[in-house]
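Trying the structure run again after the queue cleared.
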Amino acid sequence: MAETVKQPLWMRFLMFLVPGIFILFGLIAFLDNWRFVRHAQPAEAEILSIRYVHGTRTDSVTKRTVDDGDYYPTVRYRDAAGDWWQAETFLPVFFTPEVGQKFEILYHEENRGWVQERHGFFTTWMMPLVMAGLGIAGAFGMRFALRSMSRADARRLAQKNSNG
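Done. C-alpha cells:
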C-alpha cells in the first residue's frame, strides 16, 4: 500500500474552516435557544393580528410556482404577574393561524417580546441541529477527501519514482 502524502497546512486548515463555522453557528444557536427555554415561562396567547410575508418558490419536481410565505402573528398574553403583553412571533408554514385563535407559548421572563410556540420543536431546535449536523458531516467529508487526495498523490509519487 502506498504511503500517504501530507497536504500543505493551509489546505488542511481551509478544508476544516467551513465545517467548523457551521458547527460554531449551530452551537451558538443551540446555546441561545437553550438559554431561552431555560428562562422561559409558559402562557396562553391569543392572536390579535397576522402579518403574512409572501414568498414563492419553484417546485423542483412539478416545475410549478408554489406559495411559500411565512406567518408572523401578533399575540397577546398574560405573564405570571398578571400583566398583559404583546409580541410578534414566527409560526411555521404548516400552521395557518387565525385572528382570535389561542395557543400555548413560551415567553422570556426578562425580554417579554421574545415569544415562541410552546410545543414548537421545529422552530426551537431544528436550525441548531441542521447547522451542527452539516458542520459535522462536512468535517467527515473533508477528512475523507483529504485522505483520498493524499493517497492519490502518494500513488502518483510512487509511480513516478518507480518509472524514473
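The chain has one domain: 9-129. Worth checking whether this holds up in the mutant runs.
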